[in-house]
Recover the amino acids of this structure.
């Protein structure tokens, strides 16, 4: 089983095998020996990567892995072979349909697009007020608005579907 | 004997806990107030007693002067600490406290009022000899506009008299756009604040935000505890503060301190207050006075070895203010906000695993705990991380170290942004201004390679566990290293 | 440029983490070593790299000089910090480091050796003009015994020359029992240490244990950072330490400091060391010198604003020692031991919920974390809680406050004992001696009534939950207050 | 259902009832209103007892409840009616048989009694070495040694039966 990890633009494909109690991670033609220790009840994971200490606190939610490491926070996506295959099929079926969802609970203060609009990457679609701040929610990629689910004034829960694009 | 019997803390979160800590150390009982959302909050649990005052929305509880006061009377309090925000700069509330025989641990209502009106505050400051940004102290009208702008010197700023928090400000670089900008500013001010007065002042380029901490008692003594540099801010939200400010000479510090004390004296100030200045190129200009304890007060405490809340309580009880000693070393504060480090979106959720930094020179002021639900009702600050070092370089290194130690799971925080600020050349040089955050470089991603590997390993381990792989199934807390080895060997032997 | 490339930390637990923190702040990489039991320990996770050095028993790992040194060489270290305990006062180990080109961050081997032999140390101290407890510096024999005892003055103490940690000590109050006690002491010393030398000294009544922190560089500079009062101890295990010591006058402090520096100079000392004195009635007497960093060093750091580990690394790299500034305020340390607060039995187990104290003037040096297994392999100290205040009274109040905030579930700790010490009149008066813990009053049980109620409520709630009572079943994290009300009302309406 | 709570010599009997979302605790002729909030996943319990805030961290193991409160640690035993009845029966059946168990893992360095010895309350029965310290294990009440399970030199686990008395 291979694992494809992505953070932003960067991606790496790893395969893993246990050898003498250590994890051998292979990425392309590089190989490293990882000594793994789980701390407490999932408090943290300690890796010794070729002796180098990597103190990881991670939050795994399916393919989404948030990694806290040396003061930085990385939002990674990790797919295994099976998932990649499934995604390819799903992608083909949905024909590139995309969604804008509320990143947090709040109140919609403005809807800045209409159905049929062509939008650019980074263009603000919805303005959501939460925690006394107005937060623009933007298109992740260029596309066409196919459906708008909410209107200004609506209170929405975290994760609520707001706009569909293709 | 304790100075007060019981203090009601008319606030929530880290500042409520901050006040409770000092009151407890002074042998004074405390009463926490709480909204529905805050029943389980740490201040409620740490106070001597607690009173429920209403719904989760601030207007239903922490902003409701009547409910707060009733709670104070009901619970037998003889003093009230307002913290910051909420009712802390509400003169009518301070008066109501006095009427009900409760000592308001803040300045007299008149001082709050005088400093609350930004136009009036500037007038008082000018009379007290405190330097202002060159400009007109009064509402401008069209006929005088061009001459005034020329006198002040371009670029100039048009500012709504009733505005605040950066709203309704326009910058004009030359005479060309002046009149049009002025008319728009008027219309905007009218619309936004119902008050169309606009004033004009010099636009200070590359300004630093430097503030002076003052403390005054009821005997006419006014002292200051030096400055705080607060230029690392985004949309007027400060993120990193430090003291001393690299730009100040001892002579400048003394002049600014004297100005701040003069202003405090001019309004009959009592208690803790902060006089905010713009600083640029060796000159400083009065901005406004905050008539309460400031979020970033701990940096001052660490360098002066003073407890400012203790001083507030002492002067509130009529004692004379303690004379400030000589400050020592350098202190930096980083605010821990529940917000996404790249989008700055608020991040709601429940705080899970939590690892707090410690060791030499590290202080954490926070009401965070594992299990805390971060709700949309209040501002996103979870706490403040403060460090002290013998000099600025050590303080910076120490803060970086503490930021690398700290782990919060469940919500995203602003900590990575603070770390990037501290790693940046601009901050390290000491020569920065309020534009520093806009110029902040994107994450360098030193450790991205390790993060990718870590993410993949974590995913691999969790799928192994889900799959009930026996090699991993018995890995417990402690001798994981040894156990992994042993279990693995067994498994290999069996093949 | 960093002073060293990589430091190996030849230790574990809080002191390993303490050293890593400072090294990281100085831009120096660190290598942690670990036994089987410590694979998941915080120092291992926080260091740049980590090396496994053997089994969980100290002899198989942290005490095995060869394995530690091999790890240092293997991982490319150019310096080694020994912490305290383990190999820190092992002269042969310090020599072995030097032979393999690794800077040992401690004193020269000869200084370790000279101070390691307690009889030799006394001789050197005497030559350096450091006051000793009146007595004979050499082995006594029977003929001279009675005269010597009379000269020293009763009560006298008979002490095995090779002894330590209070073993083999006899106190004789008059001439009557002297000879018999002497013969028994000889026999005992022979049996216990294979060395029957016994010496005789005045038994100091109501002694305080006061020690001086010294720091010396390779250029012949020796400075001291004042004293630490360590009289709160049980079986030579310190529990509460503070600085300054209430008994010392500035003049006495200066004399003790000078004595300590004289002794350090006499043995060609380099690095951090502690000279321990007995203090009683205005006189002080040399006890011994600890040639390493002391557990209780943080109280000195807080008052002097110094980082002693940083100084160790600096002088180890050949820099001159930083001159101590003026100390400020008062600091107290409480050791957090995993032991039962009434029986003092070690308490093993796994640390569960953990609430750490914070706020002004509070420092925690600990490698504790939720999930840490407290094993029987190492000593029971989980960490140290240190506070600083403007004066002794504030420091005491602050420590009490911090102790009330701190919660550790899973093992019992010594914290309640420390709290009782701080609440007691004897400690508060400042006039106490090494007998204070024996005289400590039993728990006052102020809050016993509440504890009984709380225990019953907790049991009631857990049985309700087990029973699946719907009134309690949906109580979640946040709006428990509101929810309880609501659920309860629904349930009542339905009846 | 009544609850009997004991800490050392002190004991109190409580009964509880919910009223308007608050817990009414009755102890003899005294009654107090307790507002209860559970914090996080069992992190702590917050009680407001007639308004007074009581911040409790507790560890419940059957009838044994360890309460951490304001810097103190209380080892309480709490029995409900059913358990008290059961204990009374068990007590009668065992005829006052008592046990000395190891409070921690360690090595037995000395056994200071023999079978048949009459021992006084507080008398040392066994010395156990753990964490480099010698710990005397003493009789909780006067009695007669009926059985000695371990001998000097034996390594014992926490909770291991060492001596039986009656």
């Amino acid at each position: 089983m291979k694992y494809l990890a992505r953070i932003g633009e960067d991606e790496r494909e790893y395969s893993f095998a246990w050898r003498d109690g250590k994890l051998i991670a292979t990425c392309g033609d590089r190989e490293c020996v990882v000594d793994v220790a789980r701390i407490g009840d999932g408090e943290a994971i300690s890796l010794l990567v070729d002796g180098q200490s990597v103190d990881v606190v991670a939050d795994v939610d399916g393919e989404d892995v948030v990694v806290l490491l040396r003061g930085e926070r990385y939002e990674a996506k990790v797919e295994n072979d099976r998932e990649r295959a499934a995604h390819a099929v799903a992608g083909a079926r949905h024909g590139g349909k995309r969604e804008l969802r509320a990143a947090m609970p709040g109140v919609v203060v403005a809807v800045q697009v209409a159905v049929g609009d062509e939008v650019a990457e980074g263009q603000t679609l919805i303005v959501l007020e939460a925690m006394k701040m107005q937060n623009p929610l933007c298109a992740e990629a260029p596309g066409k608005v196919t459906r708008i689910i909410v209107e200004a004034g609506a209170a929405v829960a975290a994760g609520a579907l707001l706009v569909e694009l293709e | 004997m304790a100075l007060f019997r019981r203090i009601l803390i008319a606030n929530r979160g880290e500042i409520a806990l901050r006040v409770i800590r000092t009151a407890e150390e002074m042998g004074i009982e405390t009463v926490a107030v709480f909204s529905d959302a805050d029943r389980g909050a740490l201040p409620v649990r740490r106070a001597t007693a607690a009173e429920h005052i209403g719904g989760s929305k601030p207007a239903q509880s922490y902003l409701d002067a009547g409910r707060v006061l009733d709670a104070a009377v009901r619970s037998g309090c003889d003093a009230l600490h307002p913290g910051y925000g909420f009712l802390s700069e509400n003169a009518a509330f301070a008066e109501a406290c006095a009427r009900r025989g409760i000592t308001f641990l803040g300045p007299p209502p008149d001082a709050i009022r005088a400093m609350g009106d930004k136009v009036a505050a500037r007038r008082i400051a000018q009379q007290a000899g405190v330097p202002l940004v060159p400009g007109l102290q009064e509402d401008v009208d069209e006929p005088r506009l061009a001459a005034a702008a020329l006198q002040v010197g371009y670029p100039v700023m048009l500012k709504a008299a009733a505005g605040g928090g950066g709203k309704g400000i326009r910058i004009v670089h030359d005479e060309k756009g002046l009149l049009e900008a002025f008319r728009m500013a008027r219309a905007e001010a009218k619309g936004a604040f119902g008050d169309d007065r606009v004033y004009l002042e010099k636009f200070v380029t590359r300004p630093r935000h430097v503030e002076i901490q003052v403390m005054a008692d009821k005997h006419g003594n006014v002292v200051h505890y030096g400055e705080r540099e607060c230029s690392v801010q985004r949309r007027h939200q400060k993120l990193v503060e430090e003291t001393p400010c690299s730009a100040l000479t001892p002579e400048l510090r003394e002049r600014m301190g004297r100005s701040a004390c003069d202003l405090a004296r001019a309004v009959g100030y009592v208690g803790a207050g902060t006089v905010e200045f713009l600083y640029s190129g060796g000159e400083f200009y009065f901005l406004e006075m905050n008539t309460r304890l400031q979020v970033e007060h701990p940096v001052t405490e660490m360098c002066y070895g003073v407890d400012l809340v203790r001083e507030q309580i002492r002067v509130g009880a009529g004692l004379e203010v303690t004379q400030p000693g000589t400050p020592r070393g350098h202190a930096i504060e980083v605010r821990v906000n529940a917000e996404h480090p790249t989008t700055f979106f608020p991040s709601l959720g429940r705080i899970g695993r939590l690892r707090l930094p410690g060791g030499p020179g590290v202080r954490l002021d926070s009401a965070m705990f594992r299990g805390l639900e971060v709700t949309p009702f209040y501002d996103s600050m979870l706490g403040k991380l403060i460090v002290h070092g013998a000099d600025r370089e050590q303080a910076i290194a120490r803060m970086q170290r503490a930021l690398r130690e700290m782990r919060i799971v469940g919500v995203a925080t602003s900590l990575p942004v603070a770390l990037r600020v501290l790693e940046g050349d601009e901050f390290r040089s000491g020569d920065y201004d309020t534009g520093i955050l806009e110029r902040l470089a994107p994450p360098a991603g030193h450790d991205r390679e390790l993060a990718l590997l870590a993410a993949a390993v974590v995913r691999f381990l969790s799928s192994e566990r889900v799959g009930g792989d026996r090699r991993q199934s018995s890995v417990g807390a402690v001798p994981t290293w040894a156990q992994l080895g042993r279990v693995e060997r067994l498994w290999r032997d069996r093949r």
Remarks:
- Chain B has four domains: 6-105, 134-202, 208-439, 447-494.
- The mean pLDDT of chain B is 90.
